[in-house]
What we know:
Tetracycline Repressor, domain 2, 2 domains, DNA-binding
Amino acid sequence: MPNAGSPPRRPPGRPRSEGARRAILEAAYALLRKGGIASASSDDISKAAGVSKATLYRWWKTKEAIMLDAFCEKLTPVLPYEAKGSPLNALRQNVVRGADWLHSEDGRIAMRLICDFYEDPKLRQLFLEHFYLPRRGLQIRLVKQAMAAGELVGGTDPEILVDALQGPLFFRFLIGHAPVDKKFARDLVELVLKAVTA
Amino acid sequence: MPNAGSPPRRPPGRPRSEGARRAILEAAYALLRKGGIASASSDDISKAAGVSKATLYRWWKTKEAIMLDAFCEKLTPVLPYEAKGSPLNALRQNVVRGADWLHSEDGRIAMRLICDFYEDPKLRQLFLEHFYLPRRGLQIRLVKQAMAAGELVGGTDPEILVDALQGPLFFRFLIGHAPVDKKFARDLVELVLKAVTA
Amino acid sequence: MPNAGSPPRRPPGRPRSEGARRAILEAAYALLRKGGIASASSDDISKAAGVSKATLYRWWKTKEAIMLDAFCEKLTPVLPYEAKGSPLNALRQNVVRGADWLHSEDGRIAMRLICDFYEDPKLRQLFLEHFYLPRRGLQIRLVKQAMAAGELVGGTDPEILVDALQGPLFFRFLIGHAPVDKKFARDLVELVLKAVTA
Amino acid sequence: MPNAGSPPRRPPGRPRSEGARRAILEAAYALLRKGGIASASSDDISKAAGVSKATLYRWWKTKEAIMLDAFCEKLTPVLPYEAKGSPLNALRQNVVRGADWLHSEDGRIAMRLICDFYEDPKLRQLFLEHFYLPRRGLQIRLVKQAMAAGELVGGTDPEILVDALQGPLFFRFLIGHAPVDKKFARDLVELVLKAVTA
DNA sequence: GGCTAAGCGAGACGGTACGTCCCGTCTTAGG
DNA sequence: CCTAAGACGGGACGTACCGTCTCGCTTAGCC
Lengths: 198, 198, 198, 198
């Protein structure tokens, strides 16, 4: 029974250059921060990365896909949220910090990506999987912990609660009808939590 | 004191063609429905409208501005919300209908515009003024009526309440992590209103 | 009877820029002389001419077509060949000078164009009409004059005679098996004319 | 003292694959016939031959060199021209057949190669050595035989005579101003030979 | 009626980015 | 040392779109 488990067999041919991959994502991310998705052309990326344009399109379908990848690669990994105090407090903090994050460079870029992918289900899905869902998972967990700790009334749907806490921040930020500041975040948390605490 | 009261003085030169204006907005809106803002080029619009491209740019600064105008022109006017029952019920209905509207063609277009205007404060502002703020005003009014009727506890900030009700729908729709259906809308309303009713 | 002769009516729209046309041909010719057809990219031409690449391709189908046009435009017009002495002498001179011309810059370019157009019947035809045929016409005329003057025996087909005089130069130049110098030209003329003189 | 006189020493390492060589030339020739030198990319050749591109460039410097080699390999060897009758007749026949050959597939390819090698002295030289010169040698020999047989007047330079007979066919074929048919070939031969026969 | 002023259709223009193509080289693993 | 596979840098290609411009024509009010 030779070659049974056939371990990760290297494909034939010259292997993909890890250096090129990283240089591309590095360059793309730098350009992303500097001027956004639209202001960086594919030539710019290839030049900045010291890479042929063909190499770009060999591995990514569009410029946008590169940008998404670059963004995801660069993000700080999702850490099991550490906050002092109770799970409920952690949740509160998480929301308030979310308001800040939206104004950070990464926050702005993330929003830009969401907007850019509005018409592109594939990239939207990727964004979801690689960026949003892991972070949302954290929040869901916090909610569940708070429920388990008896800080939230039972029977609350975590999904809805998380959306209720997060959505309004996002909404204000994108529409722009009112500021997304700490006060708003705190007031919102207060309002919503009133509904799910005793 | 000549020309004092002389009311709306017609400017010299050939007057602007109302036909061209309408044809442009009509064509732009049709293209907007068909394929979105990006898939329609300015040439497409001018051709579809039977109008010179110069005429487009004489009256609008960018393609996007045309699209926004076309969208606003076509929208049903904001009517003083008529709903059966109490103001609170009207608010409930309004939110649930909002979830439907997001999936309508106009809803999708509106979202597209918001995304397209992410980096353009001017158009974003225009969109706000001509589209969102009037509709938001309605909701604010409903909240105030409900408060006046004693259906909501006093001291509630209508702005936050409206965002809490609307934001999550918008959020889900754009991120796409979960459906924006009637059930979600109703559950959300239930949750949020629990916080602001006795 | 209005609009009867309908003289050269200017077409609607912005007229083609003569300046751009000339700048393009000028630049193309310069590049042609400098490095040949292959070494000049369409970007090079457009940059050197201070013209958009779109303008290039609006008027010419391919880079090669531009080059051909540039070459034809630049050539000295075909003058009624003035040579001292008899028509036969003029013919002799014409052939000998042809050997020199082949080595000139224009000669080399012409040969390059012929080679480049080998697979392109359209451009080949254009080259024929705009470049070769007019010049060949001159030679044909010389032959006829010589015949009329009794310097060549009657019944000679001018077409064949011209090919017999010109072809071998061209042949040697392109194949490169032997030099195309004055001596060869003179010897060839001597040989061929022996057949058509008494 | 090992390896002393043992001359034809097989080099170390895996020997060159004859199969690959033949497959490449075979494939190249097929592509040459089908679409010419330009329409076949090096990838095409390697794919068609089932061979790695590296193998191509290990043995040939450029795509054109492969094509030339493929062409030469496929050509019928140069046979000591067998024709009925006198050497002069053989020469006549040779020219007339040359006109036909130009229109054959091999003829067209040969012309294509000449054009492609216009700017490449090295390949031009190779083409000369491997293709043209051997065939020209035959014609030179025929001329000399005819002279020896007294069919041509003495003192005729065979080089010039051959060019005079061949060049015009080539000329017409490449420029395309007139057909290269049997009649032309025969008329040309008649004309030229008139000069070198008594 | 002629004059001035501006809008209009047509479409060419400069500029910029796109994604594809091909060449000849390089990097693996395997024969 | 050769080969297959195929990624790589470089660079040209021709297309698409944007927003501007240049024409000649039209439509008005004013003299």
